[in-house]
Amino acid sequence: MNIIKVDIDKSWISKPRGSVEYKAGLNKFLDFAFANASSDGMIHCPCPLCGFRLFQNREDAYDHLLLKPFPAKYTFWLHHGERRVGDSSTETQEVDPGSVYRDPLRDMVREAFNFPGSVVDEDDSGNKDVEGDAEELPYLYSEPSQAARHFDELLEDGEQELYPGCAKFSKLAFLVRLYHIKCMCGVSDKAFGMILELLCESFEHAKIPASLHDAKRIIRKLGIAYKKIDACPNDCMLYHGSDQELSRCKICGTSRWKQKSRRNSVVRINVVVKKNEKPQAAKVLRYFPLVPRLQRMFMSSKTSVDMLWHKKGPNSDGFLRHPRDGEAWKAFDRRYTHFSGDPRSVRLALASDGFNPFGNLSSRYSIWPVILIPYNLPPWSCMRPSSFLLSMIIPGPKMPGNDIDVYLQPLIDELKQLWGGVDTYDASEKKTFKLHAALLWTISDFPGLGNLSGWNTYGGRACPTCNLDAESKRLTFSQKWCFMGHRRFLNQSHRFRQDRVTINRPLRVDDRPSEDATNNATSMFPLIGKAVGASESLNLSPTERLQAHRHVLVNCAGVENFLEDFRASRKRQLRSIGKRNEAYIDRVVHREFAEWFKNEIPLGSTMHPRELQWLACGPNIQAKRFKAYNVNGFKFRTLSREDGMRTQNSGVCVTSDTRRT
User: Fold this and answer.
1) Is the peptide bond before 97 cis (omega within 30 degrees of 0)?
2) Where are the domains of the chain?
3) Each residue of 534-565: pLDDT tens digit?
4) pTM score, whole prediction
5) DSSP string over 495-506
6) What are the distances in angstroms from CA 313 to CA 297, 309, 341, 502?
7) 210-225: pLDDT as tens digits
8) Which residue of 275, 448, 529, 585 could cross-link 631, Cys pair, CB 3.0 to 4.6 Å?
9) What are phi and psi of 493, to 5 degrees?
């Protein structure tokens, strides 16, 4: 075997990374690699950080190899297009670097069928020999002859040029690319078939399938087909397994086949709809088998390493960035040690929701896809659409509701099979192992939680976390459930945890004080409640001013010390005349304290605060009056305001020590 010699000096590898020789050699290496081994504009990055496992574009690969050293022993660029070719002569032959082309589709076919081929061991980052590249791999199929036949046909299609002289597309690569465009752009089968016919007529020498049927027959050999399972139109059962030959539902008795009424008949007669002399099912479930799709993830050299990230990926700071960092994942591993003992065991999540495939908001048609998400992959790839596994498509026209478990039966059967283990080939370790899988989570909205788990999400015990501990209440008029008692979720030291009155009492009216009502006296008289409506000005009479002044002084916390001093002095004065009962002392205080307080704290005094000086002067002559006031969650109105109203709430009780004169 001879080596393809490339006219590139590789002595730059040992040069300093900042030198001109190193940068020039690195650019030549990238030119060669992207010309011979690029996939979607990306190559395997040989830097120590990526280790030939991660793909990078040209700019990122250049930056990586400037920051990190180029592998010193990687002088034979096996991963980037340099190949050994058979030759009877002992001399080496010089080949143009641009002529070496490696079709990635051929590698995909070989890995998908688990057949020997030119699959490169990506863990080899050095300059190893390639004598073992064609190592025999075990067969995992029950019918190896049929698999071998499909494999040979696909290889033949993959090696055929699309037309004589075409080096960029093979027959299989062009068809897969064209079919991918059909799926991504929503091209109908009829339109796609017409496009194929036009291409065949226009390019007679090109090897293009003549019809959609021929195209599907080739693509189906890749093993990405789905199963059609007939279902009862009323979502009662699947015609699957032992019930596959039934023609009527064994639960509701509805016919399995699509029916229509015969025209021009006196009596309405339903006849079975047929296509190509075969009866058409009224409802069909499209099911995508899970086992072969999980096997493909390990049989591919590009994804088998990523499936071990959850075990080998670092997590030094302890933050929750992936489900593997959560307690549910760790508790499951501790409970089922036979499952967690192998890091290749797959953890899955199931997501489902309905949507209208026709894009018409007035249509009530609802179709439900069921998607599986493998959480073994790293977080930057497990949530990509390309990593999702479409498990089934539940047809409409109405949502399955609680009968979704009928359609999940094939998936549950496969999950039971995977729990016991399925023989699978690991391309990264080149050996067969028992593949296990388990469904750990479901992802859905709250009504979907009731459909997938069977939990009642409509009553007073709808919360699956609180369950019987939920404090629910049925609203009388709206007929809806509300949930109370959220104080228990606060910390023990939180100031609202023991506040049973404020938290649980519904706020009937807004009694928060207005922001513009604050003034300099708010420290002495905290604002309580809020006035409602427009104010009305009035002039206070001398009696009203005195009554208001007395009431404020007696009920003000800042005047309590002055009030006690005045009461004690009057008790000593009244001791001589024998009038020391509390009723008489209260009348004296009520009659004389306002004038005494005004003389005790004169206006302009430097020994007392300005608020007390203003308080001693008494109220202004002009005052504001409101017809309603909100306080303590209730609204109080004046008698004139309530005149003619059905609700009456004008009674206000004020606790005070003042008495009438």
Assistant:
1) no
2) 2-102, 108-222, 296-314+321-457, 468-504, 515-642
3) 888 888 888 888 888 888 888 887 888 888 88
4) 0.54
5) TTTT-HHHHHS-
6) 18, 5, 17, 49
7) 888 888 888 777 777 7
8) 529
9) -90, 5
